[in-house]
Structure prediction request, 215 residues.
Amino acid sequence: MTSIGILGAGRVGANLAGKLAATGHHVVLGRRSPKEETAQPAEDAGPRVSFADQRAAVRTADVVINATPGDSTLDRLTDLRAELAGKILVDVSNATRDADDGLPGDLVYPGSSLAEQLQAALPDTRVVKTLNTMLFMVMTAPETLATPPTVYVSGDDEDAKKTVTGLLGDLGWQSTWIEDLGGITTARATEAMVLVVPHVLRRHGFAPFAVSLTR
Prediction:
């Protein structure tokens, strides 16, 4: 069992919290303020998930999952540098600027990535990028897609990536669906994939999908 803190109590964070808690992990869902205590969809995380402010959620965790909005993540997590030291940080966010319709338009860090920015700002934290190339419901139910999906993993620390790969297995990802791309700089490739997403959503709506490899 792993102690996991999840930052972000929206659909992504609550979805991950519920599945990870159901597989036996101790999960704390970190909210920005007490006002979020009654906010939906955090309640969908289920009864086995506890709640705390984000600093406390990080302090008590071995693994921290960032599910906060990517355009503000760097400032938010840099403020938690001391609490994140020595921990694995799993970044599932994409840093984008919205188009007029509210869907992702441009990258905040062209030529780089949020994951790289986080690793540079948090040198004592082991950052792993994953789960950012799909709609949130696929993160915890990849088997529901008609075609086997791909989840990409980027990070400089091999032991951290092994830990994260184990958590992906708990979320339902088969080993053959997990693609280790290499170091943290490879995250700029998967983060750029988000630019495909709004075009798919405009044509097909929010039907579950993942940007995947076929062989």
Remarks:
- The chain has nine helices and ten strands.
